[in-house]
Amino acid sequence: MCLLIAIIAALSMAPQLGRSVTSLTWDADSLYYRSQALELRGVPVQQARRELFTGPLSTFVRTHDADEPGEPRRFTDPHWVDYNARFYRRRWTLPAAAAALEPVFGARSLQILSLLGYVAIGPLLFLLLRRRFTGVVAAVVSLVLLALPATRSWSVIPLTDSWGVALLLCGLLGARRVLDRGPRALPWWIAAVLALSFTRDTTLILVLAAATMAVLLRSRRGALLAATGFLASLPAPAIFGGSVRETLAFVVNDLTVPPQSTWSFIADHYPATFSHMLSRYAHSMSGNALTVAALLAGIAGVALLTSRRDRREPWLAMVMAMPLGYLALLVLGPTYSAYRYELVLLPVVAVGLALIGERLLGMLERRVAAGSRAETL
């Protein structure tokens, strides 16, 4: 079944490979990852950034600057480009893989990797759900979440988000092995968290989920997961830096270079920034109806249909605690993402939708059984 889901996902994305490289949406993130890949190939940092942010791949971002005359220049401002680069310097997993693929696929390498991450999400979701649900329910939910507009749209762009979700799922599967087998299964968990820390800034979700589960269930293995996950998440910021204060100052200054990065500056601007983010999410819901409906239905399913037995299951308790990490990241970086950052909620949404599917199947089976008994009478 995992192979079948992967094949369906791959076939659904195959037409994307027919597009020219320049016709892809290269946003600022994509250009930074491409720059880092070229850097690993020996191109000087400044040269790579200059050529990318002024070359044909930057058409989308340069058009964005031109279409907003009242806004400060970002993508066409060399100072902004250099300043913003610091927030990507921890993310080397995909640029390194793209650099390795460069001789074969050239600039398309990042897109191919993003699409492969999308293909990986389906089987990983199925494996996560299959532990608790039937094969039919697990497969249907996995395919539904792959078909979500947000999942697809953010995977066709040369970004790291699809692999961010895939590595979150690998982390959850690794955590489940530790919970089942004990410390000898730690390498999978540690490797997933370590890889995620060099891919996306979302390791907090796994670590906080493990810590929450450990406290609620008084689980020693949960505490072990939280401790080892925290340690595995440290190398990336320790090597490449990662200032929460600088990041927040940049965000609250409308994603422009802040005049200062003090906590007082952040405190002064944070309420308006957070309010603006909530307003943008509220106004965008109608245009993202399917994604919003799936997210809300999944979270509601977890909140309303989880049995007491399920809540005592350590790996399920860990999945259900993931929204805490998402909310923490939202507080630390209050930015409207067009439902890109919400992809980290796919595991908990999958569990919620599977609970709804299980309940509906049960109702259908009882109705069919009642109809069969009525016919025999």
Most strands sheet: none
Number of strands: 0
Helix content: over 70%
Based on CA inertia axes, which overall geometry fits?
A: globular
Individual helix count: 21
Order of helices and strands: HHHHHHHHHHHHHHHHHHHHH
Structural class category: mainly alpha
Backbone CA Rg: 22 Å
Number of domains: 1
Q: What's the end-to-end separation, in Å? A: 40 Å
The percent range for strand residues is under 5%
Question: Your description of this structure?
Answer:
The chain has 377 residues and is an all-alpha fold. It has one domain (2-21, 116-367). It contains 21 helices and no strands. The longest helix has 31 residues, at 346-376. It starts with a helix and ends with a helix. The mean pLDDT is 91.
Question: Care to give the gist of this entry?
Answer:
With 377 residues, the chain is mainly alpha-helical.
